[in-house]
Amino acid sequence: MYQYDQYDHLIVQERIAQYRDQVRRRLAGELTEEEFLPLRLQNGLYMQRHAYMLRIAVPYGLLSSKQMRMFAHIARKYDRGYGHFTTRQNIQFNWIELEQTPDILADLASVEMHANQTSGNCIRNVTSDEYAGVAADEIIDPRPYAEVLRQWSTFHPEFLALPRKFKVAINGALEDRAAIAVHDIGLTVVKNEAGEIGFKVMVGGGMGRTPILGSVIREFLPREHLLTYTEAIMRVYNQYGRRDNKYKARIKILLKALGVEEFARQVEEEWADLKGTEQTLTLEEMERLVAYFQPHAYETLPNIDVAAAHADNRAFANWLKRNVKPHKVPGYAAVVLSLKKTGVPPGDATAQQMDFMADLADRYSFSELRVTHEQNIVLADVEQSKLFALWTEIKAQGLATPNIGLLTDIICCPGGDFCSLANAKSIPIAAAIAERFDHIDYLHDIGDIELNISGCINACGHHHVGSIGVLGVDKDGSEWYQVSIGGSQGNNSAIGKIIGPSFSAQQMPEVIGRLLQVYVRERTPDERFVDTAQRLGIGPFKDFVYATPIAEAGRLVGEDEYA
Amino acid sequence: MPDQIIKGRSIVRNEWQLLRLAEGQEAASAEVPAGKVIVPLAVWEAQRETLAVRGDIGVWLASDQRPEVLKEDLQRFPVIAVDFPKFTDGRGYSIAFNLRMRLGYKGELRAIGDVLRDQLFQMQRVGFDAYDTRPDRSIEDALKGLTVFSETYQASVDNRIPLFRRHQRGTPAEHNDAGAGI
Ligand code: HEM
Ligand code: SF4
To answer: Which of A56, A472, A557, B41 is surrounded by the fewest CB atoms within 10 Å?
Structure first.
């Protein structure tokens, strides 16, 4: 993974000094809260319902075991013993004292981490594929490019006060695992006919109040122009993005207003002056960065049929099936540690679990971990022969729930329990659903499905792109939930369609149950929920869900009824 | 207290008077006083004939105005100012960048309006060299804002060579430890 050199260290240290002084001035009353707000947001510090929340960057989701241990340390020393991994591959701590934030930054800097631009109206942490570097379908490892973008965007003088936040995702494989279509800029690595590497550039995706999928503005951008072209996009956006209305300030609105062609034309015009300037990437720089992401020192190993060797162990078989992913090197596999055990808020990990995961990384996976945008943790380089031993260990720590990609692998924002913007709670909804369907055979039968829950229209829980999306809404001061189906992320991204009037919290497990019943009845062999939903449209689902009244009480119907 | 601004990296006396139109005031009929005056773009455009003969006129741009409109006249102004109506409005940074890089403006480029200490470093990077900081804040304090960082990653107006071209940077071979730990 990337390691800081003297310049990265210097910049981070100077940043801490700057921020420490900003905090001092705020506390001394030299800065008003209004003035301090954009400064602290640029440092990932939000004021939440109960306390400050600090969001720490995990650039493109990649972590060393040391860095993970530092999170455990922060959780213990400055928070309440746990942290929350987010859909943007970052981590959040929910109980932070303002006075301590400079010290947290200093602790983070000691392991080459920071909280820069994890919030605010600037270019945010660049996200990427959690299987970067190990996926068999990868054209090129996106991480060196994500790193180049991280450095370029860090304290970019021109783009720290944009109309709105700005999110970039980059994907290097055939399959998009970085949800690029719902980012302000989505980059996908492509090769042209001459075999040269470049990027397909998508702009204007995003969720929130107005969910829109990005549009391609350039089919092939030679890779050396990555920074100048991105700069051109940013400059057009900075000048022309709307600033009169916060809800219309994202680049997606500008793109819609101008039209894709006109927007692309303006970018090209801006770029004409930048193309070929010193900011153009050099081969040397890219080679230098690529060298940090070289494949690990893999052993020469045969592929093993692990499943066959443990065919008698159903629990292990289930875990293999769901939580173990293919690896491009024979004899290895990528393992997803599930942070979705029933009863635990999705994405939460205790300090003890963090230390444990760091320890696992040291022993099983070249001391590296990745944060997924589904809020789980990946050990990307595990020897197949050690999978059983690993499973045995993680089972004891509650990290082996065999539910990756299944109904209980819920993406869920913090909602009303933590977030001051929430219209409704979301964690208890996830908990009630997980509890209701906590039956492994049933979950495996339902198969791949994404249940995404957001506590308000900001869509932190990605509800728009869930196979089933749940959105908390406020009606006359009480909490209700609107349900959509057919959303999807990845290569065939789609925005879900709302099935009808919203439901109470108590009705939600039954609503999900009914949607699944329709799916089980209507599916063709091997058809995923989302495909059935897209094939049939909302009609049959809507008809069935609303056909009879749904009991308010949490009447738990046996799962087998649906299976 | 005398009227002061930051110029370069020093505090100096402000020699320019800033003209802002009052609500409803017409650009064509607004009176431009004698002496060094920075006028709104609209006033320059409306009174160009009379103002162009004077050597003591500067012009200021609002954050939604394009510097390209000054293309023909650019080099005649000893000062161009860019207004920051609110410190969160970042358009002025791109205006400055384009004035310097695209249009090659060489004179004084001054930030006016809601200009606070924590913006100065960025402002200097995109080509500002003068700062009319908010009068309710200490200008001595604001001066410290110009020297926050000694290195930067990306190119801008102040330094057109990005870090990766400026220095021979580290390579993985030189690293053996990811930091000192806790
Ligand atoms: C608890 C404090 C949080 C606050 C105050 C907050 C605030 C916001 C706001 C205001 C938006 C809407 C932006 C817009 O599109 O206009 C948003 C969107 C989003 N946030 Fe959060 N958020 C919080 C937590 C989280 C968490 C925990 C996650 C990840 C689990 C997250 C990830 C996202 C994502 C992915 C979006 C979608 C935006 C898009 O692409 O359009 N946020 N958040
Ligand atoms: S979706 Fe709304 S409630 Fe949930 S974290 Fe985001 S802003 Fe808060």
So the answer is: A557
